Amino acid sequence: MSYKNYPMVSRVVYGRGSFNQLNEILSPKRQNVKAPFIFLVDDVFKGKSWLTSRIPLSYDDKLLYISAEEEPKTSQVDALVEQIILDYKERPSGIIGIGGGTVLDLAKAVALMLTNKGESKDYQGWDLIKNPAIYHVGIPTISGTGAEVSRTTILTGPVRKLGINSDYTPFDQVILDPELTKDVPKDQWFYTGMDCFVHCIESLKGTYLNAFSQSYGEKALELCKEIFLEDTLSEEDAADKLMMASWHGGMSIAYSQVGVAHAMSYGLGYLLGVKHGVGNCIVFEHLEEYYPEGVAMYKAMREKHNITIPQGICADLSDKEFDIMIDVALSLEPLWENAIGKNWKKTITREKLKALYLKM
Ligand code: NAD
Ligand code: ZN
């Protein structure tokens, strides 16, 4: 048995207003005046000067607005990398992602692909990256995915939806400033928050569980219960705590794995473009069989916050389309092994998954 030697984010700053330290953090990392910092910023912040005026642009630095309407694609990563290579003679000093999981994952992938040859689709998988990424910084503006701590960047490619998992993927620097999450719309707050909740349940109920994962998972779950089920927190305290729940949830799955909801949500994402957070909710509604207590708690949270989850999204699909989703879900073997155990293939059949998808 060999244990994972897990890379972590090298530096992290936490606190309301810590975003103001960005210039101080970046300045020493500038290679030279021709090597720019490239800021990838969620386009929801276009025209929001309270945030954008604090992005310290100098010399040839560039701010690129990124739409988070769709999840990141390998073709989008390759196009951004090509644009950066064409625009600048020198390799950038760093990539800074400011946004949700979509923009954070793009920032990680671009930083990796600036130093690794070829197309990003060829690196989807585990430990295929050969060279260290350039300096990259993650600044989350919505809490839940754990993308700020993880060693993966989830991309949709021509044949699969799969992460670039590598020791070089984690950010060199993260800035956790809960103030940046203040304008997240309520539904989205819930969907992305539930991503964290589901990470906790899948980690804590999985066969890969160990004391390392459990310690982070239990803390994150405790925070989620406080945030989503109780009325004791101020809006600011809830935002502060959700940012830390996301971090802990990410740390928990880092050393274990996710489970049934994620495997099936990837299928929905690949075929129908359903986004990660809401996709997990759509699936989790129907997983009593696997996570009875977690699903009951989830439903109480959903009802308390009066959130509607899309229904009937698989109603009109053809057999061929079900097969595509089932193939994607079944290909994520470690997730099933964690959720069900070594003999998962005995109970997780194509018919079983189709019956579940039909309910969604
Ligand atoms: P997101 O980044 O897709 O953003 C969701 C929506 O919220 C977008 O419309 C965005 O514009 C908006 N938004 C973000 N911040 C806002 C703010 N402060 N104010 C107002 N609106 C704001 O959402 P997400 O759930 O954080 O990320 C989902 C992505 O994360 C998926 O692509 C998924 O694959 C990825 N993911 C990655 C990991 C990982 O470990 N790398 C883990 C889980 C999920
Ligand atoms: Zn997730």
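^ nicotinamide-adenine-dinucleotide complex. The radius of gyration is 20 Å. Residues 94 and 350 are 45 Å apart (CA to CA).
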